[in-house]
From TrEMBL:
Span list, region Disordered: 1-73
Native species: Brevundimonas halotolerans
Protein name in UniProt: Uncharacterized protein
Transmembrane domains' residue ranges: 110-130
Domain of life the protein comes from: Bacteria
Stretches with biased composition (Basic and acidic residues): 1-15
Length: 183
């Protein structure tokens, strides 16, 4: 098929405008739904079809189709995401040894953070524990270190939340109903 409109071998009508994107495909049939203001094409005669069974209407059901084969996300990823995946491909899946090491690191971090938190905000418990033990070199040393630690922490004001909770508990413990004897 020639792309030049003046070609004598071209079967198209010379009055038709040149297609902006010439292809080798045949011209599509005219639409049955033209734009507003144009006439509607008469319906095309089709060969007679057998009468439809009223019990089982014709459908487009495909018994071999599986709904799980359909893609869930029909949107195409953005070009930037595709470029990022090409430039930085995802790492290979981790094996059990790598996962176990990662879990150990996470556990160690959590234990250290909780230990530091408890040491700063609940150092009085170490003092109380050392006072409850039988006196020996270890418990006396722990009690002296805990006393020094709590003195330093109280200067920062880190003992105030624990003391506020303790005071609120003691106030609730000492509270009495009207007419009840004081504790």
């Amino acid at each position: 098929m020639a792309d030049h409109p003046d070609d004598p071998k071209d079967p198209r009508d010379p009055q038709d405008p040149v297609d902006p994107f010439p292809t080798d495909f045949p011209q599509p049939p005219p639409s049955r739904f033209p734009p507003v203001g144009q006439e509607i094409m008469p319906p095309v005669e089709t060969p007679a079809s057998p009468p439809a069974d009223p019990v089982d209407p014709p459908s487009d059901w495909n018994a071999g189709a599986d709904a799980h084969d359909l893609p869930l996300d029909t949107k195409r990823p953005s070009r930037l995401k595709v470029l990022g995946q090409m430039a930085f491909p995802p790492p290979p899946p981790a094996d059990e040894e790598v996962l176990a090491a990662r879990d150990r690191r996470w556990t160690t971090r959590v234990i250290l953070v909780v230990a530091v938190f408890m040491l700063v905000f609940n150092g009085a418990s170490i003092q109380n524990w050392a006072r409850q033990q039988a006196p020996n070199w270890f418990t006396v040393t722990v009690q002296q270190v805990a006393d020094v630690w709590m003195t330093q922490v109280s200067q920062l004001g880190a003992d105030r939340p624990r003391q506020a909770i303790r005071d609120a508990y003691q106030d609730a413990h000492d509270a009495r109903f009207p007419g009840q004897d004081p504790a």
